[in-house]
Amino acid sequence: QVQLVESGGGLMQAGGSLRLSCAASGRIFSRDNMGWFRQPPGKERQFIAAISSMDGSTYYADSVKGRFTISRDSAKNTLYLQMNSLKPEDTAVYYCAVDRATGWTTPKYWGQGTQVTVYS
Fold first, then answer.
1. What's the burial of 92, exposed, middle or buried (CB within 10 Å: 0-12/13-18/19+)?
2. What is the C-alpha separation between 101 and 6, in angstroms, rounded?
3. 63-111, pLDDT tens digit by residue?
């Protein structure tokens, strides 16, 4: 089992920045891929960003490319999402997740989520 705990969400004015953290514990492996998803109000959960365990390659949804940066500190088992130039449409519950070789079709573990609200 893997436990994921997100933190760092909150209320932010448009144009501001937030950094989300996701602390992983339990049977987390260096080969596990990690990523971020979000669920805006009344919408489906959507992929935001992921980082490969193999070579550190990063992947982003078009909606956040150039504004958000995903990173991972393997020594601390912590995943980060630096969010800059926030927009009201970034308002959502943000989740971190662990994927084990499914190509993010069925992530294995999910955190409980952290709310991010951006106002104009």
1. buried
2. 22
3. 999 999 999 998 999 999 999 999 999 999 999 999 988 888 889 999 9
Residue 117 in tokens: 């609200």
Q: Long-range contact list for 40-49, CB < 8 A, 24+ apart? A: 40/89, 40/91, 40/92, 41/91, 41/92, 43/92, 45/95, 47/104, 48/81, 48/94, 49/81
Cα–Cα distances (Å) from 17 to 2, 28, 108, in that order, read: 29, 29, 29
Contact 67, 14 (CB under 8 A): no
The answer to whether 116 and 9 have CB atoms below 8 angstroms apart is yes
Distances in whole angstroms, Cα of residue 92 to Cα of each of 10, 28, 100: 10, 26, 25
Question: From CA 75, how far away is CA 67, in angstroms rounded?
Answer: 26
DSSP secondary structure, 43-72, as one string: S--EEEEEE-TTT--EEE-TTTTTTEEEEE
